[in-house]
Amino acid sequence: MSDKNAREGEIEKEEEQREKERERLTEEEERRLRGT
Residue 21 pLDDT more than 80? Predict the structure, then answer.
């Protein structure tokens, strides 16, 4: 695997991680809004 491909793979993993974080935060915010 070339350096460029390795770097792109890392970026993809980070973006997926951020996506999951954002989804979880959104779910928590919705729960908080509904709870009040």
Answer: yes
